[in-house]
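Morning!

This is the sequence you dropped in the shared folder:
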Amino acid sequence: MPPDRISSLGEKKLISRIISRSASFFRPSELLGLGDDAALLDMGNEYLALTSDLLIESRHFPPKMSHHDMGWKTVTVNMSDLAAMGAAPEGFILSMALPDLDLESFDSLISGVMEACSYYGAPLIGGDTNEGDEIIMAGTAIGRIRKDLVMMKSGARPGDLIAVTGPLGLGAAGTELLLSGTDTAGFEVAVEKSLKPIARVKEASRMAKSGLVSSATDITDGLISELGELRDASGVGMRIHEVKLPVPPQVSEAASVLGVDPLELALYYGEDFELVFTAPPDAMEELSRIMKVHIIGEVIESPSIEMVDKHGDTYKLHVRGYEHLRP
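The structure's back. Tokens below.
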């Protein structure tokens, strides 16, 4: 019998496998945040939050993405993880493997990195360069958060409301349009969302400082996948309502052109870079007075992910989304 391959597990189970082995080598106090959006190092009254993401040109950068936007996205995906924890960005480290680019393309790539670092208030403070057959960008973001304000995937309780910070499906629609080679005229908002996403660092700061959020994560691998993360970490279930989902008309229009279900783009694809979070009803009402929130459902006791469709029927959703290391 041939040996099992990592593709039989996929990214999330592979990470769980690593985490389970870490417990044999390190004390629980040394593993704070492991399995969450960022690791946490105890710094007295604060945590130092650290996270890392790897982007590969052929897998993460859609056609027509400029070198500048590649650099921007490399920083943004890392800052989104800091945002999910409520951490304020402090610095960024970048390691790159590069083919023999012309200097204009290289300068454009680095310009995108620098502009994003400036936007998020996280200076580029180090890294490494090497040769590669294609562009590979490995970023590490460093942030700080007061211990009493950190947001984590655990903490949701039955009766809490579920909300997102912005529209769903635009990044997915833009990416799929670019991958299909379809004329993108009229879909500029979706394409912009795909090529130059914005991490919700400012919104996360308001959320963390309010102390009202019970759990949170960012939507990079699809809403249902991320709700599954909150469910597993909190030991609860999630119910969303189709009529409450903030899916812009442009997503439905793009889905029609692509021949796909708009809910597939909004629920499973990812690339939204919004935050999904939970809070008690009175806390959510208070949050809505200091920032834009879209309430999409509620936390339930049953450990399942459910959706109430537009006809009022309730059914369970299979937890899936974008995942690396799958065949």
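Headline: The mean pLDDT is 93.

More detail when I'm at my desk.
O.
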